[in-house]
Fold this sequence. Notes:
Elements: H1 2-5, H2 7-31, H3 36-50, H4 55-65, H5 72-81, H6 83-97, H7 102-129, H8 132-135, H9 141-145, H10 150-154, H11 156-173, H12 183-194
Amino acid sequence: CHREFGECRAMLAGAGLLLEAFELLESSAARLGLDPGEREETVASVAAAVGGGGVVGGQVVDLESEKKQVDGRTLEYIHSHKTGALIRVSCTLGARLARADRRTLEALAAYGEKIGYAFQIVDDLLDELGDSRDLGKEVGMDKARGKATFPAVYGVSESRRLAALAVEGAKEALAGSALEKDPVLAGIAGFILARQA
Length: 197
């Protein structure tokens, strides 16, 4: 959009689409019969995930960290607020709309946070070690831009170990919940670790 119509129009389109998403979310929650408090909680969870305390805040720190030496704490802040927050709320949203119990919501939130962490680590590894033909994009762009990445901070071997630990943590997060033996959620976690594109 920014290439075709310019950055100003692209930013306005993004802002408009984001607001449209909240309208759709609230109207969907109302159609599903959620009471005003449940609707408010659902919309607030998405707003928190994408706002200054979530994706937007993480993106700001990500941009400010380019071409700088960052530590593990800063890197984890960036990605827990970007990928982690977005995947966490994505994992809980359907459950909220279905009126899942608190334990299920907590399990899905923890699961989403862990697979978000694993997804980002694998994404960083693929940008460094992947094949452009498989990925459909040029590799090495993170390093060229001086982005804060897991391989840059922890190295390749430790990054792989952290991704595997995050996937195990995602599966463990479901323990004791109604979703403990759900093959789809376990499969998604495993796929994130094994993906090549």
